[in-house]
Amino acid sequence: MTKPPLENAGISAIRPAAVPKLHYRTGRAVTALIIREMATTYGRSPGGYFWAVAQPVALIVVLSLAFSMLLRSPPLGTDFILFYATGLMPLRMFQTLSINVGGALQFSKPLLGYPRVTFVDAILGRAILTALTQFTVSLIIFTAVNLWTHSSAINTYEIIIESYALAIVLGIGIGTFNCFLFTLMPVWRLIWGIATGPIILISAVLYLYEDTPLFAQEYLWFNPLVHIIGLSRMGFYSTYSPSYISIPFVLACGLIPAFFGVLLLRKYGRSILYL
């Protein structure tokens, strides 16, 4: 005899449980990657976050002492430390972002094998932590400078924030494109470090753009960092109002590499990661 179906026997068939939807999956993945980055980068090294503050402070002090022996006063204001800090800190924001974001895939390689972790999560995790760290370091340094000089050096907060936002856009954009190149050609990381080593000399950190010869200005204008640093100093000095700054140009320099970097990583990211 054939057994009656379960429905006829009064027993309902057990349906498989529905898979719960994963809300905010990207946010959770990025948060986990940030915590991992903090524990790995700053938690294991002696001093941790101390060196993130000590390195730029040491460089600013050395530059201030050296140029104070050569010049009677800085190109802007009367304080050498403030002048070089307003140029160096936005530059460091860009440099650290372009390098750290560039190494995001290689750093998170063990986790990218999981389907819930994407290259976008890896890039966002590193970018957010690096930007917050550098912004905090800048806040500490400028607060210390104001306390040291007993004066309020800030002219316009909105302009300063705008300059840092542009540095973040540029750093993430070039860092995203570097992320593809660093993964495809590891030697590119060394080339990039050598190529950007003297960038402090051509980014109007040690001088003002307006003080350079006209033929030099024609070339320096195409360096987006010159615009960012000029905007930063405009936010600190009420007497400084540069006319050469082009925000659309800086945005284009950051967004175009970001677009092509995401495009290349989306198509070849996982394949080049395991070459």
UniProtKB/TrEMBL annotation:
Record flagged with keyword tRNA processing: no
Annotated InterPro entries: ABC_2_transport (IPR000412)
Biological process terms in GO annotation: lipopolysaccharide transport
Keywords annotated in UniProt: Membrane, Plasmid, Transmembrane, Transmembrane helix, Transport
Organism superkingdom: Bacteria
GO molecular function terms listed in the Swiss-Prot or TrEMBL record: ABC-type transporter activity
Membrane-spanning intervals of the chain: 48-70, 82-107, 127-149, 161-184, 190-209, 244-265
GO CC terms of this entry: ATP-binding cassette (ABC) transporter complex
Family that this chain belongs to: Belongs to the ABC-2 integral membrane protein family.
Name of the protein described by the UniProt record: Sugar ABC transporter permease
